C-alpha cells in the first residue's frame, strides 16, 4: 500500500473533486427542478391486514433530471434542507398529494388516505401549519384523509413547539405518524406525551423478520405497545408473504412493501389498485 500511497491520494482527490462538482451541480439543478416540472410523486399502497383492502397510499417524491436521470430522495432531500429549498418542495408535495387523492375520491374512492413525508426543517418552519391548511383548502381533501409522517428526531428537536403544532394538526383532523419508528435514540417515555396516531415500524426490523428471533421480539413489542397506547401500527418494507403472514398474526394493523405493491405512478395506481376494487 505504501508504494501506491501517492497514487491513492491522487485518486481520492479526483474522486472528491467529482463529488464536489456533482454536489454543486445538484444544488443548482435542484433549485430549478420544480419550475422545470422535473419532480413527480409515486404512490405506495397501504394494506389493511385485517380486511385485505388497500386503504390509501404513501406519497414518495421523485426527481428526474434530464441529464443525471433519477436522483434518490435520500440524496436530494438533505440537500434541499441545507439550501432552504425544502419549504417550496415540501409545499409542492403536500398540495400535489392532496390534489391527486381528492381526484381519486371524486372517482368514487372516498375513503382513500394519503400519507405524506415531512422532513425535520419543513416541520419546524413557522408556516408549516398554514401550508397544511392551504393544501387541504386548495384540494378540498377532508383533513382526516391526510396523514403526516414525521421522524422521532424531528419531533424531539424542539419538543415543546412540536407538540403544539402536532396538536393543532390533530384538531384539524390530520393524523400524525412516527416514521422509521425504533431507529431513533430517544427514550420511550415521550410516547405518552406526543400527540400521535400511528407508529410506522422501520424497515430494518422487518426485512429479516421471518428468520430473526430478536426482530420478531422487537416487532411484537412495538405492536403490543401500539395497541396499549391506542395507536395504529404500520409495518414498512414487507417483502415476503411470510413476513406478511407473521405481521397479520401479530395483529399489526397495516402493511406496506414490495410484497404488496411497489411505489406506483398515479396512472398505475388507478389501473392496478383502484380498478376492480370496490369503492
Ligand atoms: P421512507 O419514508 O422510510 O420511505 C420508504 C422507502 O422504502 C421508500 O424509498 C420506498 O420506495 C422504499 N420501500 C418501500 N417498500 C419497500 C420494500 O419492500 N423493500 C425495500 N427495500 N424498500 C422499500 P424512497 O422512495 O427511495 O424514499 C427514501 C426516503 O426518502 C423515504 O424513506 C423518506 O424518508 C424520504 N422521502 C421520500 N419522499 C419524500 C418527501 O416527499 N418528503 C420528504 N421530506 N422525504 C421524502
Ligand atoms: Ca415514510
Ligand atoms: Ca423516513
Ligand atoms: Ca423507513
TrEMBL record:
Coiled coil: none annotated. It comes from the Bacteria. Residues 23-277 form the EAL domain. This is PAS domain S-box/diguanylate cyclase (GGDEF) domain. It comes from Anoxybacillus suryakundensis. The chain holds residues 367 to 645 of 648 of the full protein.
